[in-house]
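Re: weekly structure request thread

Next one in the queue (83 aa):
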Amino acid sequence: MPLVEITLAEGRSPEQIRALLADVHLAVHNAIDVPEASIRVVVREVPPAHWSAGGQTLAERAAAAAAAETEIKTAAETANTGS
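Done, posted below.
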């Protein structure tokens, strides 16, 4: 009985998770030709504040990216208005 475990940061829609489950299920079935009823797929969603890479949480990375995007937009608006 194959068991596939997937860990993702939270934030995807129920439809996206369902599509992932279906696609992974089919990929396992096609790859190793096991009965479909024996395939198990588990998706765990982790809050971005509970997952880090390089010492920075995913939530912190997202906040930094949003701040940088805001700075870029502000700079572009300032350049366009000549102020």
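The two ends are 65 Å apart (CA to CA). The longest strand covers residues 3-9.
Next request, please.
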